[in-house]
Every structure is written in C-alpha cells, then in structure tokens.
Queue: 2 jobs
Job 1
Amino acid sequence: MSKTDVTEVETTTALPPAKRSFGARLGAHFKKWWWVHLIIFIAVLLVILLPVIYVGYPRIAQNQVTDSTLNITSMVIADPTPDSFHLMQTQVIGSHSSYHPKIYSFLASVSLLGSAHAFTSVQVPEVQSKDGAEVNVDQIVDLSNADAFGDFAQAVMLNEDVELNIYGRPGLREGSLPKTTVTYNKTVSMKGLNKLTGFDVTEFHIMTEPKNGRNMNGTVYIPNPSVMTITMGNVTLDLSIGGTPMGYTYLDNLVLKPGNNTIPMFATVNQSAIIGLVTSSSNPYKDLNGLVPFVISGNSSVYNGKQLPYFTQALASNNLTVNLNVTRALAELGLKL
Ligand SMILES: *[C@@H]1O[C@H](CO)[C@@H](O)[C@H](O)[C@H]1NC(C)=O
Ligand SMILES: *[C@@H]1O[C@H](CO)[C@@H](O)[C@H](O)[C@H]1NC(C)=O
Ligand SMILES: *[C@@H]1O[C@H](CO)[C@@H](O)[C@H](O)[C@H]1NC(C)=O
Ligand SMILES: *[C@@H]1O[C@H](CO)[C@@H](O)[C@H](O)[C@H]1NC(C)=O
Ligand SMILES: *[C@@H]1O[C@H](CO)[C@@H](O)[C@H](O)[C@H]1NC(C)=O
Ligand SMILES: *[C@@H]1O[C@H](CO)[C@@H](O)[C@H](O)[C@H]1NC(C)=O
Ligand SMILES: *[C@@H]1O[C@H](CO)[C@@H](O)[C@H](O)[C@H]1NC(C)=O
Ligand SMILES: *[C@@H]1O[C@H](CO)[C@@H](O)[C@H](O)[C@H]1NC(C)=O
Ligand SMILES: *[C@@H]1O[C@H](CO)[C@@H](O)[C@H](O)[C@H]1NC(C)=O
C-alpha cells in the first residue's frame, strides 16, 4: 500500500504588506487624493447642474408659462378721461403643471391682437402660478395710445369675441432655484358687446312737460354678454328716420354692467316732423301698424365734461334700428291718428 502523500498546501500565508484589502487601499487612495476627487465631483455636478439650472430650468419655466392660460373673469373701466381710466381686473391663471413658481410683478403691455400698438401698460402684481390663481389688477392706467384704445373699444362694440394680447418679461422663481426671466406672451379671448344685439327700447312716452328740451322718456334694454363693466358717462345718440335727422337720445351716466341692463332714456325729438311723417298720406311706413323704424347712431360719450374719443368712436361704429310704435305714444296723449 502506497502511502498517499498528502501534500500540505499552505493555505494561510500572511499577505505581503503591499497586498492590503481593496477597501483599505481605496481608503488610502482617498486619503491622499481626496481633493482630486472632490474637484472631479464638483466639476461633474456643475456640468450636470449648470445646464439644468441655467438652460433646462429656464426652458421648463418658459414652457410652463407658455402652456398656462389666462382668463379675464371681470374687467371694470371706471373714471374715464380722454387719456386714462381706472382699471379693476380679475384674471384667472389656468395651469396643469405640478410646479407653482412665483411670478414677480411685471409691466405688461396690452394690445388688441394684431394691432401694431399697445394701448396701455399694466403693472401685473406678483402671483404664485397655479391653476385657478387669481391676479387682481387695480390701478389708474394711462392710455399710452388713445387711438389704439379706440380701436379696442370699437372691436369690443362690434364683435362677439375680442382677442387681447398681453406681453411682458416677468421674473420667475421656482422653489430655491435662482430667479429666471421668462417671456409672457398671452392671447386672451373675451366676449364683446356683439353690436349690442338685442338692444331694444322697451318703453317710450311723450313727456307732457318737457325738461331741458327733452320731450320723450322711456327705457332701453342693453344686453352685455361680456365680463366688462364700462363707465361711459353721458351718452348722446343721434336719431333719424329714413336718413332724416329727428333728434337725439340721451343715456345719462351710463354704466354698462355684465348681463341685462335696463336703463332710463330721454330724447329730444322733432315731434312736429314725426307727426307730420306718420300723418302724411305718403308715410312710407303706413303698413307697419303704427311702427316707425328709428335709426340710432352714436354721437358722443362725455364724462365730467370731457368727451371720450375712444367711446365716441365705438358708439359711432354701430348703428341700431328700433321700431317704435309712434301711434301708441300719441294715443297715450289722447291723440288719435
Ligand atoms: C378659461 O376659460 C375657458 C373657456 O371659457 C375655460 O374652458 C377654462 O376652464 C377657463 N380657465 C380657467 C382657469 O378659468
Ligand atoms: C406674441 O405671440 C404672437 C403669436 O402668438 C406673435 O405674433 C407676437 O409677435 C408675439 N409678440 C412678441 C412681442 O413677441
Ligand atoms: C316719463 O315722463 C312722464 C311724465 O311726463 C312720467 O309720468 C313717467 O313716469 C316717465 N316714464 C319714465 C319711464 O321715465
Ligand atoms: C337677460 O334677458 C334674457 C331675455 O331677454 C334672458 O333670457 C336672460 O336670462 C337674462 N339674463 C339675466 C342674467 O338676467
Ligand atoms: C322739425 O322738422 C320740421 C319739418 O321737418 C322742420 O321744419 C324744423 O326745422 C325741425 N325742427 C328742428 C328743431 O329741427
Ligand atoms: C352730435 O350732436 C350734436 C348736437 O348735440 C350735433 O351738432 C352733431 O352733428 C352730432 N354729431 C354726430 C357725429 O352726429
Ligand atoms: C351728465 O350730465 C349731467 C347734466 O349735465 C351732469 O350733472 C353729470 O355730472 C354728467 N355726468 C357725467 C358722468 O359727466
Ligand atoms: C350710421 O348712420 C349714420 C346716419 O344715419 C351714417 O352717417 C353712418 O355712416 C352710419 N354708420 C354706420 C357704421 O353704418
Ligand atoms: C301700435 O299701437 C297701436 C295703438 O296702441 C296698436 O293698435 C297697434 O297694434 C300697435 N302696433 C304694433 C305693431 O304693435
């Protein structure tokens, strides 16, 4: 039997001093070279972060501002003068973003979409941008361009919808990230007066005792589908029948509110001319059973003694025709035709 030699393999050899554990080696390496690693770490961090902060973040911020919407839910024009008015406006921000950056107060120029000139600048207050956030503007605005505002007022008068452009460069801050500047360029659609469609003289009477030359009174109905409350002052409208001037209608201290407006009116009409017309055998309206078509066209809007050219322009851009029962008005006075 041969003896199997078991060769003892030395398994427990002590490591030479240079062959330490990986961890230990790493530790020693860092002890010596930590500053190189720190510099590399910081450099990598900066290479990643800087573009995020200075390129990506402004871009994300800009996209958020671009994607947000703006609704004007209320707009009050008060104390108008030829070159200014008091504006009170509520805007509602719409946003689907989960970020709610702070948008700093900024100067926004407001123009009719497509117009070359802004009609005013508005200081928009600071706001935390989130869905449903309200922005309230309350200030005296100077009409930097009263003609451009006249075009806006006319567009409001004539159109069902009016598009406004609001432009500015506000600062924006998200959390603890640095402040960045974004471009705010929004088109806001709002309802207009749509040619005062639905306008009606619901009641009119010949005054038995004329006052200040005013010899008719009554009530007008003016629907206002917009969100605007417009102080127009003393409004004068021209009255004509078949192209012949017949006098003036007055809406004193007119303030158009959103919804249905029922407003007292007065008129100075040439009664002898009207009676002459309806009693003449050549009355072109004799088949209308007493009705006479009056054309109402804008003459002027005056507030505190000053004519407001922009409202005058808006009023002049729109003619209305109302059929008034002259026979009935005369019958009220006991005059039978
Ligand atoms: C803004 O108005 C539009 C249409 O009128 C509506 O669909 C939207 O929900 C409104 N957004 C806000 C934030 O009120
Ligand atoms: C704002 O955006 C509109 C298009 O939506 C563009 O026509 C207009 O030039 C922009 N305004 C500015 C000042 O960049
Ligand atoms: C119109 O004036 C008459 C007096 O002439 C008055 O009785 C009437 O109440 C007035 N109507 C309206 C609607 O102002
Ligand atoms: C305004 O008047 C019209 C009818 O002329 C009516 O249908 C509507 O409900 C009224 N609106 C308000 C807010 O009263
Ligand atoms: C009223 O009409 C008559 C006849 O059309 C005319 O002769 C008269 O001058 C007019 N009066 C006024 C104040 O315009
Ligand atoms: C406005 O009314 C005045 C009288 O009050 C008249 O002289 C003038 O011609 C009218 N202007 C227009 C544009 O109808
Ligand atoms: C409208 O005219 C009347 C009478 O002239 C005046 O007392 C009133 O102050 C005027 N209203 C406005 C808003 O200018
Ligand atoms: C409105 O009617 C007046 C007189 O009837 C006329 O001079 C004017 O051109 C008309 N305006 C419009 C916009 O149709
Ligand atoms: C106008 O009024 C007269 C008298 O009140 C009446 O007979 C006539 O039917 C009225 N016309 C219309 C179109 O309502």
Job 2
Amino acid sequence: MVLRISEVALVMLLTCAPWLTYAQSQHQLLVGMTMVKNTTAKVLGAYCLDGSLPGYHFHKGFGSGASNWLLQFEGGGWCNDLKSCRDRATTRRGSTRYMTKVENFSGILSNNESLNPEFYNWNRVKLRYCDGASFAGDSKYDDGTSLLYFRGQKIWQAMIHDLLPKGLANAEKALLSGCSAGGLAVFLHCDNLSKYLPKDATVKCLSDAGFFLDAKDIANRDTIRSVFGDVVTLQGVEQNLDPKCTSSLVDDPKLCFFPQHALSYIKNPVFVLNTAYDVWQFHNILVPSSADRRQQEWKYCKYDITTCTDSQIDTLQDYRQEMLKALYPFYKHSTSGGMFINSCFAHCQSESQGTWLDVDSPRVRKQTIAEAVGDWYFERKESKLVDCAYPCNPSCKNIIPA
Ligand SMILES: *[C@@H]1O[C@H](CO)[C@@H](O)[C@H](O)[C@H]1NC(C)=O
Ligand SMILES: *[C@@H]1O[C@H](CO)[C@@H](O)[C@H](O)[C@H]1NC(C)=O
Ligand SMILES: *[C@@H]1O[C@H](CO)[C@@H](O)[C@H](O)[C@H]1NC(C)=O
Ligand SMILES: *[C@@H]1O[C@H](CO)[C@@H](O)[C@H](O)[C@H]1NC(C)=O
C-alpha cells in the first residue's frame, strides 16, 4: 500500500538473477531485512506500533573490519498523541508490514572502500524505526478496541540480543550511529551499548542531524518542548532517560530527551554531525506552521533561501548562534568528542553518498564529513569543525527538502 513503483520494481528485481548485474552496475548494495522474532529474542514484547515484529538489515564485515560493528538507527520523526501514533501504525514509520524489505546501503553504510574508506568492511546494520519515540519508549495503549505498542526501548534491546550471537558479542570496535530521530536515539543509547560488549571494546557514537535544539519558535513559543514532552509522556520514555540527567533536572526531567541537556552525562566519545541551519529544525522548531500565522511570510523562504528577506536571514543566523551556544560546553570541554557543524541547508548527511564523501560533498576547512568522522573515531587528530555562517561555504548544495 505504501510501496512506491520503484520499490516494487526493486523487490521484483530481487527475485530474479539479473538484478545483481543491474545493482552492481549502479554501485548499489541492496540488503534484505531480518525480522527480530518474539520467540528468539531474550527481550519479550518488542513490537512496532501496530504489533508487527521489528526488523534490521545486516551486511557482514570482512578482513580487518570483521570484528567491528556499525549500528545505524533509522530516523523518521515521532508521534506525540494517539491520533498521530494510530496514523503512523498504518505506515512504514510504524510497522514493518509496510516497509520495503530491502535497503540501499550507501554513504557510511557502503561496502565500497573508495566511497566509505573508514567503515566499508565493518559489520554494518541498519536498525529500522517503527516505534515513533526514538527507540526509547516502554508502554502500551489499550482501550479495548484499539491497541498501540510503545516499545522502542525493547526494540533496541531485542535487536542487540539478536545481533550478539552473530558476532556483536565479540566486537572490538563499535560505532552507534543514526540520523534525525535516529540521531536522537544515538544520544539516548550511547552508553548502554557498552554494557553488552566486551569490557575492552571501543564504543563511540555518531549523531547525524540528531541535535534537536530546545529552542523557541519565531512566535516565542516552546513548540518543540511541548512536542517532545508529549512523546516522552505518551510513550513512557522518562524511565529510560539518563538518570543522572533527570535527577539534575527535577523540575522537568522530560527535557533530558533533548541532546543538549543530556550530552554532558554521556561517557562514551560522541561526534555531533549537524548543520547549523538543519532544515527539519528550521521548518519544525524555528518556523513551525503554527508560528507562521499568516502562512505566508515564510512560505517561500522555507523552501528557497534566496527568497528570504534580510530579517529572515537574521533570524536564521540567530538560530545558528543558539545551536553553537548549546554546543559550546561540549566544544570546549569534551576531549574525546568531535563535531562537524556545517552551514548548509540540509538534514542527514551520513547515509547519502553525495554528502558523506564525494568530489563535491560539503567540506569544512577542506575536510569531508567522512574524513572528519574517521579522524575522530581513529584518533588521528582533533576533529571539531565549525563552518562559517551562510552563505560563506560554496561546498554547500543547499538542497532544501528535508
Ligand atoms: C566503488 O566506487 C567507485 C567510485 O564510484 C567505482 O569506480 C568502483 O567501481 C566501485 N567498486 C565496486 C566494487 O563497486
Ligand atoms: C511473544 O512471546 C511470549 C512468550 O513466549 C508469548 O507469551 C506471547 O504471546 C508472544 N507474543 C506474540 C505476539 O507472538
Ligand atoms: C542497558 O543495558 C542493560 C543490559 O546490560 C539493560 O538491562 C538495561 O535495561 C539497559 N538500560 C537502558 C536504559 O537502556
Ligand atoms: C542507492 O544508492 C546509490 C548511491 O547513493 C544511488 O546512486 C542509487 O540511486 C540508490 N538506489 C536506489 C534504488 O535508491
């Protein structure tokens, strides 16, 4: 029902031999889905919103990467009330029933050394997102006629348990990664991954477009604070937030869902990859439609920066300043941390080849994102890159739609 024509074609191609030649000629790596069965998982009750089994895509590592693991959370927004969760349960965002069963592994997930020099031969896993609360809820809604599972936390744990016997239990190096709502999940689960791995394993975390700012919108309202607060309450997320964070914010522990409040409590090394004008944040935190009352003032600027007025550009520059300010303690004090805060209008840059590593991919001080992340992970040099303000950087493609 949600399958698009091209995806149907892809699935059909998968079932006959010639697809291989086709995929190879396009340098595509298509990886099938593994379902996390209720019976095999040590964690019971791990279901998508609609009760379907969760799934991941696993491509085995080889050579020098055979004992290293990259786990990548899929993103895709949140649901914050019963209606949005019910709606989501009937789409690929809330049910594996409606998901494509093959994923295109590119960028940080590519197995091609020239396209992904740091991680191409690692075990690489894409964890599909179907709970609507960044893999962190643990609750259930049942009014007798309709049932919704809020089991993100259990999905996370069940996936890990499923992967442990496949080699994850003996991991030497691991990178927990993810984009958007998956980039937020990285902050929430970063330290927990270590608990499942050998004591001497290196565990680091890369959040791509997951640094959602606790910021006011243009009408001076706390729109995102209220959306995230509702997600946390509805889905029972608070019990899974970092207790060190929640006990320091007793007046509003739900705020620990925001990376900027939780970051200083994370022990494992973190890399924050985000643009300072993240398009999702621009459209939903800074200028949500509820705040652009006449629905006109920002209508064009939201989708084409060249049409923004000077005062709108100033508003965007202030947002960038706010993000840099929120990251400053991390920039200044984290010795193990890394960052790449560029000034492009984009959202999610690690999984698409054109932004991860390409001849014309975005750069800050001549470095690509792939190099910056590699320098940080392998400790080749300090890797904290902050771009100059828009429109200074010609390597930005500023493809708006998020
Ligand atoms: C890897 O990518 C490069 C650059 O796109 C391409 O020339 C090469 O053929 C690819 N290798 C494989 C094995 O697909
Ligand atoms: C999941 O497994 C438990 C324990 O085996 C069982 O009680 C439960 O009915 C199962 N749930 C589903 C939906 O299969
Ligand atoms: C963290 O990991 C342990 C497994 O060692 C698990 O039992 C626990 O529930 C996890 N906690 C959170 C908050 O993820
Ligand atoms: C898969 O990814 C490659 C590299 O980013 C891209 O060229 C190709 O169009 C993608 N294929 C599909 C079906 O999305």
